[in-house]
Amino acid sequence: MVMPEAQPRRHALLALFAEAAGLFAAVLVTVSYSLLLARHTGSVLTLWIPNGIVLGALLSVPRQKWPAYLIAAFLGFMAGQAIGHGGVLGSGFALPLALGLSNGVEILIVAAVVRHVFPRIAKDTRFLLLGRIALGSGLVACMASALLAATVLRAANGQPFWTTADWWFRGHLLGLVIAATLTLVALLQRRRMLGLPGQRLLLLRDIVGLALVTVAVFFQARYPLLFVVFAPLLYVVFHHRFPGLVLGIAIIALVTSIATALGTGPFQLIVPATPERQAMLAQIFLGVLCITALPVALALADRRRLGRRVTESESRYRLLADYASDLVMRIARDGTRRYVSPSVKDLLGWEVGDFMDYRSELIHPDDRERVAAAAEELWNSGKPSLTQYRLQRRSDDYIWIEALVRIAPSPDRPGEMELIYTGRDITEAMQAERALADSEKRLRTITDNVPAVIAHIDANERYTFVNGYVREVAGQTPEEMVGKTVAEIRGPVLYASLKPHIERVLRGETEIFEYEAEYGGRHHYFQTTYLPATNGTGQQNGFYALTTEITRIKQAEQQLSYLAHYDVLTGIANRRFFSEGINAAVRHASMAHSPLLVMLIDIDHFKQINDSYGHATGDAVLAEIATRLKSSIRKTDLLARLGGDEFVVLCDDIASHEIAETLAQKITRAMEMPIAVGAHTLTVTLSVGAALCRNAGSVDALMQRADEALYRAKERGRACYELSVTGV
Asked: pLDDT of 63-89, one tens digit each?
């Protein structure tokens, strides 16, 4: 029979066992996944997730549960090692054991430091301080575990010490920051991790949008578009706070690590694109994301905490008559204090009697003139005044006071007016505002230096935000653009091409497109992404525009296309261009039953020119022949150099063999005039083999007839043409 007092204990043990089993499964899966991914792709681990999961779990439970959690995590690690490395027995037991202990040291250092400073983590936690403590202890812990692991792996496998310590430290630090934050927020928020009721679909939509953008960036290796990820991530953080932060970072980290391991994504653009370099760049990218987004989320959380504190202070003001929790004073026109609330003791450390006499020296020297001017203005205008200044405590340190002062009739001196002063301590709020301002400044610095124009355009097509990079692209300043419409900034011609994309994005569609524009007398190519923007209630309030200049890429594509289809020496079509053209011409001729004329052209005794005068002279001769041939044929004919001293002309719309002979004669006569190259005058002749065919059947058959005709022309003594006519 189970005793009544034993029943709750049994339930508690079962609950602890279930929690430990869940942690065991999470560690097993993540260790196996990381090791198997690295093993089968031959890549370096970008981030190590298991330690972050264990750390987040420890910080969410009392210390009494830590031993059970650590044992479960260790067993999960050993089992994951067995799966990831093909079996513990095959790889030895001592090495996984030593590495497991190294991971345990790392986890315990961070958990102990954070729990010492923050016995509990709740809504009123100072999140910016928590972030600094966690990051500092994480750096120390990862250094310690990296040195231990490097020593173990060097002794066991002879791996390079500092190389091992380097990738271990980077991967573990990123894993702690990302996975620990995700786990802790998930365990504390629980169902709220999926968004507040009524906003879960919005969170899902924004997370899916972020995932799609990240996948699009990483599963292509043509353009360096990593910066595109920042805008949707910050959007998710601003709109969904911690759930948006951890889900967004987790998705980006997952896509980044998989793409890096598979050897795809923008990191392929580096040369040489080694797995080690790609892993390092992936870690730097994820680190920059965390450095950018995490302070924003922490500052927003602190701001919300301070906002709640301000609300509580305002409710206390309504009860000042009974409790006087803030500093309340009545001050006469000559500065005499007729009443000081007892709260002055708690706020400033002064006794009421000590504070009754006016003492201007207690105001910070930098604020005295401003406070005096505000008081004078209040007496002159009669309007209430809200002033923030620093006031010295009895302990000689300063605190920030926000003083609301208004003029009111004296309750005990008829006909006389006096100041009613209420002051409260806003030191922490000022510190948080400074931190938020610093964070916003860092964010603005980042957006202004991202090599893309980032803008927000409202539903009326007016710019509400433009980053500083627009100066580099368009020569305009953000101040010149904000408040104006897209039509006013871009002009009627360009706006007409942008308008369809704007209409679609305002309907909620994401638009990615390219366009051309003239700026500063130069022709530019741009790639633009339009992303729908919504406010906190989920209503669309315009869209974001991310524009990247791709002029150099387009010019490179055009140059590559030219080099692929034209001969560099002569400027006429090359073999590839001719092959595409003759294939298309034969297909068209077979359908229309029309004749085609092909003329193969050889330069007679060209080798002697190269041998006697050099290849430079030979190149000049080739260029001159190409020029004369081009002037001898029709504009609709295709002239190409097949290579060496071989040229070819493709003609359609040839009604008779007489026209074909006329064209062949013009080509041979084109060389009647000698060619002058420097001090040399060279007489050059051509041998032409022409084939005029209707229903040639194939390109090979047509070229074969022209080649046979060229052979006959050479047999006749060269400097002539031979025409083969079939079916005409």
From this structure: 888 888 888 888 888 887 777 664 433
CA 632/CA 624 separation, integer angstroms: 12
Q: How far is CA 80 from CA 24, 30, 85, in A?
A: 10, 8, 8
Q: Which residues share a beta bridge with 402?
A: 388, 424
Q: State the CB neighbour count (10 A cutoff) for residue 670.
A: 18
Three-state secondary structure readout of 593-624: CCEEEEEEEEECCHHHHHHHHCHHHHHHHHHH
Per annotation, catalytic residue among 326, 354, 645, 652: 645
Tokens of 469: 């990079």
CA distance 230 to 214: 10
Contact predicate 728/596, CB 8 Å: no
Backbone region of residue 687 per phi and psi (left: phi > 0; alpha: psi in -120 to 50; beta: other values): beta
Rg for the chain, CA atoms, rounded: 40
Q: In the sheet where 595-603 sits, what is the strand order?
A: 638-643, 646-652, 595-603, 686-694, 721-726
Query: What is the number of residues in the chain?
Result: 728
Q: What is the DSSP letter of 675?
A: E
| pLDDT tens-digit readout, 275-311 | 666 766 766 776 677 667 767 766 766 666 555 554 4
Handedness of CA 278, 283, 288, 290 (dihedral sign): positive
In the residue annotation, 645 being an active-site residue is answered as yes
Return the bridge partners of 330, or none: 339, 420
Q: Is the dihedral of CA 537, 538, 539, 541 positive or negative?
A: positive
Q: pTM above the 0.90 mark?
A: no
Q: What is the C-alpha separation between 728 and 725, in angstroms, rounded?
A: 7
The DSSP output letter for 453 is E
Instruction: Tell me the residue ranges of DSSP E strands in 661-703.
Output: 675-677, 680-682, 686-694
Rounded to 5 degrees, what are φ and ψ at 337? -95, 115
Number of H helices, E strands in the chain: 25, 17
Cα–Cα distances (Å) from 351 to 357, 358, 394, 420, in that order, read 11, 14, 10, 20
Element (H, E) at 513: strand 511-519
**Burial (CB count <10 Å: 0-12, 13-18, 19+), residue 512:** middle
Q: By C-alpha distance, which of 274, 256, 253 is closest to 265? A: 256
Those residues with Cβ within 8 angstroms of residue 207's Cβ, 6 or more apart along the chain or in another chain? 236, 244, 247, 248, 251
d(CA 144, CA 184): 23
> Cβ distance 568 to 586 under 8 Å?
no
CB environment 316-339: b (16+ within 10 A), e (fewer): ebeeeeeebbbbbbbbeeeeebeb
Residue of 452, 662, 461 lying closest to 542 (CA atoms): 461
Question: What's the CA gap between 344 and 422, in Å, rounded?
Answer: 11
Give the integer Cα–Cα distance in Å for 257 and 38.
10
Token pair, residue 320, equals 């000042």
User: Tokens representing 193?
Assistant: 């991790």
Whole-angstrom distance, CA of residue 547 vs CA of residue 54: 41
d(CA 692, CA 492): 53
CA 429 to chain CA mean position, Å: 32
- Chunk the chain into consecutive blocks of 10 residues (it has 728) and report each block's average pLDDT, rounded to whole numbers: 57 79 81 70 64 80 85 84 55 75 86 82 69 82 87 84 82 73 64 63 83 82 78 79 74 77 73 67 70 69 57 46 68 84 83 79 88 87 86 88 87 83 85 76 68 84 85 79 87 88 89 80 82 80 84 72 78 88 87 89 89 87 90 89 90 86 90 86 90 84 90 89 82
Question: Contact at 8 Å (CB) between 434 and 414?
Answer: no
